[in-house]
Amino acid sequence: MDFDRLLQKREQLAKMWDAIPQVAKEKLERSFDIEYAHNSTAIEGNTLTLIQTKAILEDEDIASKSKPIYVAKERILVRDTDEGRAFRATIADLSRLLDAYRAGVLVQHGD
């Protein structure tokens, strides 16, 4: 659509706008807001459907169709896992190495 035709459409709408009932205008504006939000977030990679976007904008809950695989009885911190313990051991080793370097036990060669 070229710019002149777009201006014509805008003028047509301006002439008709006052004749449109207020309720219809509000629905049109709300519909536009929802579609605009949906399309804008979709561009960013959001996977919400139009219906889900509408629900969020209207402060409604979105029912999830996925089911949890496992629900922990209490929060598990990374440090309390096997990997966390390995990370802490590596950090301790690096800390001892740094202390040895600072104390002059280790010297840097090269450069």
What is the 3D shape? elongated
Low-pLDDT ranges = none
What amount of the residues lies in strands?
Answer: under 5%
Average pLDDT, rounded to a whole number, is 86
**CA(first)-CA(last) distance:** 66 Å
Instruction: Indicate the radius of gyration in whole angstroms.
Output: 30 Å
Number of helical segments with 4 or more residues: 4
Largest sheet: none
Estimate the helix proportion, in percent: 55-70%
Q: Say how many strands there are.
A: 0
Structural class category: mainly alpha
SSE arrangement, N to C: HHHH
Question: How would you characterize the overall build of this protein?
Answer:
This protein has helices at residues 3-17, 22-43, 50-57, 82-102. The N and C termini lie far apart (66 Å). The chain has four helices and no strands. The model has no long low-confidence stretch (mean pLDDT 86). The longest helix is centred in the N-terminal third of the chain and has 22 residues, at 22-43.
Which helices and strands, and how do they pair?
Layout: H1 3-17, H2 22-43, H3 50-57, H4 82-102
Write out key terms for the chains shown.
111 residues; mainly alpha
Give a brief rundown of this model.
With 111 residues, the chain is an all-alpha fold. Helix content is 59%, strand content 0%.
